[in-house]
Design goal:
alpha+beta; Double Stranded RNA Binding Domain; DRBM domain-containing protein
Length: about 90
Amino acid sequence: MADQTPDSWSQKLMHYCRMNDIEFRWQDYSDPRGIRTAWTSSVFVRGEEYRCKLYREYEFIGQCREEAAELAYKELVAQQQSPNGYRGRGMSG
């Protein structure tokens, strides 16, 4: 039987949220910088925002989403494993 483990952080986050009936949403942000525009992304889970720390060109927005998903996923897993229900904070802009 093939391994059905999600590969990317966004896949892991979506799988975790689906299995635990948790809603989430992505949000992309732009920042005009002269002749270029920089982009970043965040994901909102349970009212917390987990934002990518770096701005990138739009062609790399997927990397921003992956970083935001990694932050959110690791926080959700830490909350689940914590005996006292620890709730840390996501990166808010």
